[in-house]
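Sequence in, structure out.
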Amino acid sequence: MTGFLGIDHPLIAFRDLTQAVERYSALGFQLTPIGKHPWGTSTVLAMFDRCALELMGVYDESLIDEKPIGDFRFGRTVRDQLAEREGITLLALYSNNAEGDAAAVQARGVTCQGSVEFGRDVVLPDGRKDRTKTTLKILQSSDLPRLSNFACQQHRPELIYVPGWLEHPNKAFGISRVTILAERSDHGRVRQRLAGLYDEDALFESADGFGARTGNGDFIVVDRKAASERYGNIPAAFSTSEPCYVGIDVRVPDVATVMPFIEAANMKYRRGEGSVLLTDAGYFGNVFLSFVSSKRMNG
């Protein structure tokens, strides 16, 4: 069971969503049909149990200011960041109690702009049509815009975590870590952000930076030097970038389950002990994707 504000789903924005679907499908992910948000963004998901990868595009710019929350516009945020470059624009945090979780982080100094209540039409694997019901608590950071979040509560989880969508040919079943790229001069601000979300007790030091433990997976913060050592060449798109999400580690029972897809698609990779890193971040929307061997946890 996912605990307090676990990593739910990074929103990876693409200028060509059809191409993104082709590339992620070639990796062995089973993707949901394209859905549409009321604020003009389109969505495709690689669903896991209580988390996901979300591939997102913009289908109608005339809707990007729909459902405003104070100064926050979900569609405009995605559109504007996508105009700068592809990549993770926002990161959703899993919640069973959006109101309570928002109150907890506000007590630690994190700003909540307010709520978004919405639904989107879905077509289930058996052909049935239905509509989701979701509450978002917007946790936008004006100081660290590319590290903004929202708490995401699904009121009809049976329409999200559908068994037929949870089985992937590559056997992926979750997210273990998201990497944040931030120069040393920005580490103080990022630390304050993560402590506000998770409390100081959740923070930990690492060999090349620091991180935070969440209810589902960890955030790890590295500077450009450490990121280069970890990933190799950093895309030019990040040359003048503010702190941002740059890498996602996906859980698989064994990296051998994903290797046939990587090799069949002739993707560039680097193999490690119990892991495989796809080194061409630009190909996957300015995201370094890694697959790590992990055991499934019960409950």
